[in-house]
Amino acid sequence: MLKATPAAAPDCGAPGDRPAWYQYLPVSTEPIDKPRSRLMLAIRVGVGALAVAFVVWTFASLARRVDLAMLEVSWGWAAVSVLPLIFGVYVLAYGFALLLARMSQLKIPLRAAMYMQIESQLARYTPGKVGVPLVRLAAAQQLGVTRRVMASAMGVEALCFLAVGGALGLSALMLTKSHAPPAVAAQVAWLWPLVVAFTVGTLALVFVDRRFFPAAVVRLLKLEGNGPLVPATLLATHALYWATWALHGLCVSRAVGASLDVAMAGSGLFILAPIVGFLALVAPAGAGVREALLTAGLAPAIGATGAIAAAILSRMASVIADFGAWLASR
User: Fold this and answer.
1) What is the reported pTM?
2) Does residue 161 contact residue 238 with C-beta atoms inside 8 Å?
3) Is residue 228 classed as helix, strand or coil in its secondary structure?
4) What backbone torsions phi and psi does residue 26 show, to the nearest 5 degrees?
5) For residue 119, what are the CA distances in angstroms to 54, 80, 115?
6) 3-class DSSP state for residue 41?
7) E strand map for the chain
8) How many CA atoms lie within 13 Å of 181's alpha carbon, on the beta-carbon side?
9) pLDDT tens column, 12-71
10) Which of 11, 146, 217, 306 has the most other CB atoms within 10 Å of its CB?
């Protein structure tokens, strides 16, 4: 069970000196399971070490092949690549608002819920992405839902986000494999078991009535009412969201001189790279990890120079889209 951090918690200064979100930091009221905590810490450190090693190895192996004199960028294509991402920001926010309404079975103010989600997306640029849950938990009361429902909605959103994105990204690579080097698909083959597991879990939440969930789950989430926990429209919004990333990838690839068939073949990588970055929790907004996967995947087809340029352009476009959509939503 979770509750707000006690006011007398040590090393946090006087109550008036604490940030507004401090009261929403979740702490367990149950005794700490030290072996489990050590295991989770070991997993996080291990994943972080692998992510850092992958980034360093990728860029070190490609740096020797970079020739800036060969680089030509079409800034028109680069500018157009931002537009699908801006649209995707609003699509993702709309899907989360629908999910929150279904899980709480309350009428949620749509515009306020979408703005909260868009604002929280900026917080993923913090190390460990800890800002995302803090922003959303702090807004729970204003939206009329409990923090428990908000936390559960975040977990369900992440599950669907990974399932739909992983399935679309891997499928795109399979459908265009005749135009992509075999090594590209091999680099992301390890995602298949995870995507299958995420997909099974998501489909269960979409099609199984919450009344038939295990009693422990019902008690944990304090579920009420009936019907599936996740609206089927969430799958559609996430599919549309990831389609915007595929279109963005096509535009970015064209910006660095890739032919149309090569750009289409690499579009699946622009879906999978943010997912791998999302799974690398230590990296703010997947920084470094996302670029390394894109560079390694695109380099065999468009060269090291074009691949690194595409990864940098993609990061610039996503940052502009996130902040641009946030400013527009205000």
Assistant:
1) 0.77
2) yes
3) strand
4) -80, 135
5) 30, 23, 6
6) helix
7) 2-4, 26-28
8) 11
9) 444 444 444 444 444 444 444 555 556 555 555 555 555 555 555 555 555 555 666 667
10) 306
Mapped onto helix, strand or coil, the DSSP state of residue 209 is strand
Amino acid at 30: E
Candidates 123, 103, 69, 61; CA nearest to 226 is 103
**Non-local CB neighbours of 51 within 8 Å, separated by 6+ positions:** 280, 282, 283, 288, 289
Q: Counting Cβ atoms within 10 Å, is residue 264 exposed (0-12), middle (13-18) or buried (19+)?
A: buried
Contacts of 110 (CB under 8 A, 6+ apart): 94, 97
Show the tokens assigned to 139: 């807004």
Q: Is 272 within 8 Å of 137 (Cβ atoms)?
A: no
Identify residue 120 by its one-letter amino acid code: S
Residue 129 has pLDDT above 60, yes or no: yes
CA distance 322 to 303: 29
Determine the residue type at 210: R
Give the Cα separation of 217 and 236 in Å (integer). 26
| Positive or negative torsion for Cα 214, 217, 223, 227 | negative
Cα(114)–Cα(116) distance, integer angstroms: 5
CB 119 within 8 A of CB 133: no
φ, ψ at 209 (rounded to 5°): -60, 135
